[in-house]
């Protein structure tokens, strides 16, 4: 592994000249992360689903990055289509001039149902998007980054990387596996100067948690257990993502960084 640069600390977080491929950045945590990385100087490649004719694309993240004066591109991919996922990294390389320095796997879906009734199709859908697509993109990134001896892979895990949750067996299984995958890849690639780490969000006020936010009993139960006294917001991930994407985290390898307002401390 290359040593951490001996430069003034603010420059450790400078991402100028770095190309980022990020999934799940249309809204929520992913959007906040993509914008934060662009603010730090990176060029961004956003992964979005190709919409049906007549549908209006969500361009909020794209427009926000463009307004910063940063380079931003979009590649289309449905992450539930694993063959399309296999073709995604080469497409991103092409639009980004042959270089991807940072991969951020932030996309995810949720399905809720009691485990005794959990549909097999829901299980397959969650595992394909939340785990298999992460593996395929990470493997493609490793094949690109390891020979060049540089790169960052950042996977979004969850509190359910550590806990089982309720009525979300597929999500818990996928996020637990993403945590172990993060460590496994780090064990192999750290010596090649490729750092692989994860971010584990706590309870965050996003679309994915809409059902919990509308459930008065669960909302109260969860909120009372968060030491910070509030649910997280997407902007709470701007600092952690820039840290893990930058040279400031050069010696951070296989870490699962929990961003949860203190939930796991309870």
Architecture overview:
By secondary structure, the protein is an alpha/beta fold. The chain has a single domain (9-259), classed as 3-Layer(aba) Sandwich (Rossmann fold), CATH 3.40.50.720. The protein has helices spanning 28-39, 60-67, 82-86, 88-95, 120-148, 169-189, 210-214, 216-224, 238-245, and strands spanning 19-22, 43-48, 72-76, 102-105, 151-156, 194-201, 256-259. Helix 5 links the parallel strand 4 and strand 5.
Keywords:
Rossmann fold; 9 helices; 39% helix
Q: Please count the helical segments.
A: 9
CATH domain fold name: Rossmann fold
What is the N-to-C order of secondary-structure elements (H for helix, E for strand)?
Answer: EHEHEHHEHEHEHHHE
Indicate the low-confidence ranges by residue numbers.
Answer: none
- Overall shape: globular
Question: What average pLDDT do the residues reach?
Answer: 94
Rg: 18 Å
The secondary structure category is alpha/beta
The top level CATH class name: Alpha Beta
Number of strands: 7
Note the gap between the termini.
Answer: 35 Å
CATH architecture: 3-Layer(aba) Sandwich
The portion of residues forming beta strands comes to 5-15%
The percent range for helix content is: 25-40%
Structurally, the number of domains stands at 1
Q: Strand order, main sheet: write it out.
A: 3-2-1-4-5-6-7
Would you identify the CATH H-level superfamily?
Answer: NAD(P)-binding Rossmann-like Domain
The largest β sheet comes out as: 7 strands, parallel
Keywords: NADP, Oxidoreductase
Domain Ketoreductase: 18-192
Pfam family, one: adh_short_C2
GO molecular function, one term: oxidoreductase activity, acting on the CH-OH group of donors, NAD or NADP as acceptor
């Amino acid at each position: 592994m290359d040593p951490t640069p001996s430069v003034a600390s603010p420059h450790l977080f400078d991402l100028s000249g770095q190309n980022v491929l990020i999934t799940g950045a249309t809204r929520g945590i992913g959007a906040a992360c993509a914008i934060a990385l662009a603010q730090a100087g990176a060029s961004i490649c956003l992964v979005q689903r190709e919409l049906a004719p007549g549908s209006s694309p969500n361009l909020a993240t794209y427009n926000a990055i463009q307004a910063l004066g940063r380079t931003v591109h979009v590649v289309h991919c449905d992450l539930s289509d694993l063959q399309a996922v296999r073709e995604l990294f080469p497409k991103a390389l092409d639009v980004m001039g042959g270089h991807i320095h940072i991969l951020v796997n932030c996309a995810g879906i949720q399905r809720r149902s009691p485990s005794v009734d959990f549909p097999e199709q829901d299980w397959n859908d969650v595992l394909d998007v939340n785990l298999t697509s992460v593996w395929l993109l990470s493997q493609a990134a490793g094949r690109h980054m390891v020979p060049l001896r540089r790169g960052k892979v950042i996977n979004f895990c969850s509190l359910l990387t550590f806990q089982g949750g309720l009525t979300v067996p597929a999500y818990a299984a996928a996020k637990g596996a993403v945590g172990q995958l993060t460590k496994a890849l780090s064990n192999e690639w750290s010596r090649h100067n490729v750092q692989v780490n994860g971010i584990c969000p706590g309870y965050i006020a996003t679309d994915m948690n809409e059902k919990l936010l509308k459930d008065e009993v669960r909302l109260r139960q969860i909120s009372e257990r968060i030491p910070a006294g509030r649910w997280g917001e997407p902007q709470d991930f701007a600092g952690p993502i820039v840290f893990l994407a930058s040279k400031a985290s050069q010696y951070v390898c296989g870490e699962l960084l929990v961003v949860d307002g203190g939930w796991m401390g309870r």
